[in-house]
Amino acid sequence: MRIGETWGSKLLGIVNVILLLILSSCTLFPFIYILATSLAPIEQVLRGGIILWPERLSWDAYEAILFNDNFVRSIYVTLMVTVIGTLTNLILTAFMAYPLSKKGLGGRGFILFLVLFSMLFGGGMIPTYILVKSVGLLNSMWSLILPGAISAFNLIILKNFFQSIPEELEEAARIDGCRNFGVLFKIVLPLSMPALATFTLFYAVGNWNQFFNAVLYITKPSLWTVQVFLRQMIFQGSTQDLIGQAGVISGVEIIPTTIQMAAIVVSTVPILIVYPFLQKHFAQGVMLGSVKG
Amino acid sequence: MNGVTARRSRAQGWFTNWEYYVMLLPGLAFFLVFKYVPMFGIIMAFQDYSPFQGVTGSQWVGFKHFSVMFAYDGFWRLLRNTLLISFYNIVFFFPAPIIIALMLNELRREWFKKTVQTIIYLPHFISWVVVGSITFFLLNPENGFINQMIAHNGGSTINFLSDPDWFRTLILSQNIWKEVGWGTIIFLAALAGVDPQLYEASVMDGAGRMRQLWHITLPAMKSTIVILFILRLGSVLDVGFEQIFLMLNDLVYEVGDVFETYVFREGLSGGRFSFGVAVGVFKSVIGLVLIMGANWLAKKAGEEGIY
């Protein structure tokens, strides 16, 4: 506490801390509720009532979901889409951003305009669907990767970041005999690690979480991503249903809440694992775009 | 002579830069194929598109689908729903990250600030499917947490998920839970740029916390707030489509159906391709006009635009 602070100001500080504690608790509550119920024994859940804490730890729900072939396959598909997709995202974005960061490059202005305009206007869902269908990507993993291969927003942010790297560093490498590809790989990319870490996280989370593209482009249940699986499992029996797609886990069998919640936990944990490692870069990553050029 | 030299150096530029163009190629191909080819698909809105005849073989019908659209009650319902959901978000969601950023900025203990930030950023990374599922577990009338609380306290359960009166509140609450924390980042960054000497000087002049907030902190955030607000107005037709798609059911179409959900249901699944594209084109064109207007306004207000 600073010297000479008034009581009113101190009180305000305490109220502030309490309000932020309430906010944090409200944010965390759903996570804790899902985790607690998924670990609760089935008797406790069937008995009904409010569950805030499991009576004893029961791993039955996790056993059930981890031995469910459909779930495991959906996790595998999602993992493939995330790994291959994120690599594709990063390579294409970095390769395009680097030349665009060179102010003297012929045609740069026009290409930047194309990129920017695609952020403001688009053909929409049906023309994109017809395109994906006509190039034969329906029911292929690539339909979940290629239509969103580059985020125009990330591209422009990365371009601005590359522009902020001092030209002298690149010149030095050129004098040492590096060509453009060499400069990109030996100088520019290593210097951009914090930015690239942020984009890896953003792209990977986007790939892992994407849902609607899978609804549009994937009809074969063997290629369902985990988000589609979750949606089928949890919203089944509610009034809505995916058109022409029947329930995924053996007909209309009712799935215990605990198993549904365990599936949520398992499918969310991978994101929560990478989160702390990359958190320190967020603010930087988000603010990179403010460097205009 | 000068012209020749310039031409030669430009040709040399193209030549020595060939590696740059090789690097550009895959990305450029992506934008042309997946962004610009669909834009030409918009001509479907002026045809009676049939999947068998394709875009080149289908019959031209001019503005038929647009006149049908404007005469159709359901279309105005889409517009109303979209604008109302956006309006809810602007009024109740928009100020929240600003207030929370100000609250975080008042914290003196760095570890506490970091912990709160870590927690409130977290939901941003959760998929809408999971958010929708959690909503279902918390709110469903049979064994949802909230309804059990209500029942426990002697109230009668509320069917939040299929009651049209609750739909917008539900969407807004999900949005606040998921994105408010993340939204603080940009405001916190603006606050981090404030010179600490200003606060020290104001203490010398006898300013309390409230006066510091009013005369130093808020002015430092003003430009960020103004530009984000204007851009938010410009994207008033963009509502969280995946989110709404997941929460939508037959009982809440009246208040929850928006452009994309309609285009998906009627246009794509229902096979009314051309009509679906027409509805989509209406949204895209108005969206473009709004965002350009917003950008113009932002520049007019003395701020940097987005482009």
From TrEMBL, chain A:
Residues spanning the membrane: 12-36, 75-98, 110-132, 144-162, 183-205, 259-278
Keywords per UniProt: Cell membrane, Membrane, Transmembrane, Transmembrane helix, Transport
Bilayer topology annotation: Multi-pass membrane protein
GO biological process: transmembrane transport
UniProt xrefs under SUPFAM superfamilies: MetI-like
Localization: Cell membrane
Domain ABC transmembrane type-1: 75-267
Annotated GO CC locations: plasma membrane
Family, per entry: Belongs to the binding-protein-dependent transport system permease family.
Identification of the protein by name: ABC transporter permease
Organism ancestry: Bacteria, Bacillati, Bacillota, Bacilli, Bacillales
